[in-house]
Design goal:
The complex is a heterodimer of chains A (149) and B (142).
Chain A (H helix, E strand, L loop, with lengths): L17 E2 L2 H10 L10 H6 L13 H13 L10 E10 L8 E14 L2 E12 L4 E11 L5
Antiparallel strand pairs in A: 1-3, 2-5, 3-4, 4-5
Chain B lengths: L14 E9 L1 H11 L9 H6 L9 H16 L5 E8 L12 E12 L4 E10 L2 E12 L2
Antiparallel strand pairs in B: 1-3, 2-5, 3-4, 4-5
Classes of the chains: A alpha+beta (149), B alpha+beta (142).
Chain lengths: 149, 142
């Protein structure tokens, strides 16, 4: 079933804030097999010029999707989640993410399009601190296989 | 923050040495837990086959993280990666054995930008498949 184009341009209210912890960064770094001490050791991070341990570039996936997640579950959108695969992903940083950051994510559906037999939907997420400082913008495109019939 | 690579020491067309990253089932279980993506296609062979996949496949974001690690290791500082985007072009199939799958990542300096930034074009392969396409990282060099 084609996705409902009325959802293009929809903005979703900011998420509850997400507190970035050293423990979560360490867990995520271990899960991607990256042993860089900058992800684990505050002193190593400070020696590299950072205020605290830093998050790997793809870390925002841990919390950024939840904000737009409600949209994808809305029956009016017409998405069959069992057929969804990840199409594209991008992280555009204003500054790195550090342990101790309290971040909020505001999601907007920016595009829905057909490519062959698939439906593609793109969500842009603006990640800022609770104080409003821009940190990172993510672009997530999902593919609904066979969605276009 | 400071990358260890000097902008002036880098040339357009320069190839970065390739690196291999092994993916076994345990890595996908760890990634599922750490990322919160519990889709069973990444850890349950029975379910993966039911939905028409050849076997369990790696999370696209796991593969993206391996190519990200390749760039941060080269740059010497994860904070130097200011923009990183990929398209997922093929699946990484992860068999249930001790070897798992291998993701081979390589890169080339595609462009030198203003402010000591460079664009690295990345290639990631698993077996015969190119698993990422249009993979680009913008890195702030010293």
């Amino acid at each position: 079933m084609a996705l409902n184009r009325d959802f293009v341009g929809r903005e979703y209210p900011p998420s509850a804030s997400y507190e970035v912890s050293r423990v979560k960064i360490k867990e995520f770094a271990a899960a991607i097999g990256d042993h860089n001490p900058i992800y684990r050791d505050k002193e190593a991070a400070q020696a590299a010029g950072h205020p605290d341990v830093i998050a790997p570039p793809t870390f925002p996936i841990v919390f950024s999707l939840q904000s737009g997640g409600g949209a994808l579950a809305d029956p009016d959108l017409g998405l069959n989640y069992a057929m969804v695969v990840h199409g594209e992903q991008r992280f555009e940083y204003t500054r790195p993410i550090y342990a101790g950051d309290e971040l909020v994510t505001k999601a907007t559906i920016t595009d829905i399009r057909t490519a062959g037999r698939n439906e593609l939907l793109t969500i842009r997420s603006e990640i800022t601190t609770v104080g409003g400082e821009p940190v990172c913008t993510t672009y997530n495109t999902i593919v609904e296989r066979g969605g276009a019939g | 923050m400071a990358a260890k690579v000097q902008y002036d020491a880098v040339e357009v067309g320069q190839e970065l040495p390739s690196a291999d990253y092994q993916v076994r089932r345990v890595n996908l279980v760890m990634y599922a837990g750490a990322s919160g993506d519990l889709n069973p296609i990444h850890w349950n062979e029975r379910f993966a086959k039911q939905v028409g996949l050849p076997d369990v496949i790696a999370h696209g974001m796991f593969t993206m993280a391996q190519a990200g690690r390749y760039v941060t290791d080269w740059a010497g500082d994860p904070g130097a990666v200011v923009d990183y985007g990929v398209r997922f072009s093929a699946m990484v199939v992860v068999p249930d054995d001790d070897q798992g799958a291998t993701i081979t990542v390589s890169g080339v300096v595609e462009e030198k930008l203003e402010d000591k930034r460079v664009v690295i074009a990345l290639t990631a392969r698993s077996g015969d498949a190119k698993v990422l396409s249009r993979a680009r990282a913008v890195v702030q060099l010293a």
